[in-house]
Amino acid sequence: MSDIINLKNIKKYYLTQERQLLDIIFRRKPIYVRALDDISIDIIKGNILGVVGESGSGKSTMGKIISSIEQPTSGELDFEGSKVDKKHYKNLRKNVSMVFQNPYTSVNPRMKIKNLVSEPLGKFDEKKVRDVLSLVGMDYDEISNKEPRELSGGQIQRIAISRAIIKSPELLILDEPTSALDESIQAQILNLLLDLQEKLKLTYVFITHNIGVAKYMTDKIAVTYAGKIFEYGNTKNIMENPKHPYTQLLIASVPDFKKKELKSPVGDVPSLINVPKGCRFSNRCPKVMDICKSQEPKFSDIDGVKVLCWLYG
User: Fold this and answer.
1) What was the pLDDT predicted at 105?
2) pLDDT grade, residue 259 (50/70/90)?
3) CA-to-CA distance for 208 and 270, rounded, in angstroms?
4) pLDDT at res. 271
5) Contacts 24+ apart (CB under 8 A), 112-116
6) Cα end-to-end span (Å), the chain
7) Which CATH number is associated with domain 3-7+42-308?
């Protein structure tokens, strides 16, 4: 299968504050937050890639780079084999859509549902709106003239999904699409997304902090931490035999009837402004070695899984 998206050495740094005149005069170095730091990954057409990790790990920033909401500080983004630059962002935006975490904040609360759904088209097309609402399990005649406040959280998330697919994109970025919903509604939305992926032959990037949900939804997983990818490979392989200590702890924190005790990473996530030397997980890692604190590891390929860890270096 071919790749639809390739990220090559992507970095995304944010200035902590705008530089003032005195900063320039006194040649003060700008201070950056390193949200993404040298990320390389391939997204296979027709697959579901899960991007998992704690808050602040760079998951959402990666989604914004792929969807062109943000542009990388450096590195290369390829779409279907062609480098994306300023001239080609229009084509990328046509073929990539995004569904956000909170459905109510991602739509205009004063617009009618029929206009919300058709908005990405730039014009109202009743047939397309009817068709796409039917795909997400909504009745046009019942809800078309309602406003978002008249719908439940699950219903408005279906509206957000219909907005994302009405332009027939090839790739959907799903940024925590169920975390704001009740458990029972989450399951319905996840099953809907799987049905749509199969019917429309879509590719998904599924961003979540819940590795248990990623296990259910994805073909491949990228485990992110402090702006880095720590482990990347087939979901089944990683879930059954996680290599990186961080991945092991994430999986150990998922509730299971067979477990008597849940484990999770302890300690604080390192600063993305003053990034420590060596491995970024070294201050929390139960298997830390001296080299972890002084030198940054490189990727090793272990049974088809890429692992950024000195245990395998």
Assistant:
1) 81
2) low
3) 20
4) 87
5) 112/144, 112/145, 112/146, 112/147, 113/143, 113/144, 113/145, 113/146, 113/147, 113/148, 113/151, 113/159, 114/140, 114/144, 114/145, 116/148, 116/159, 116/163
6) 29
7) 3.40.50.300
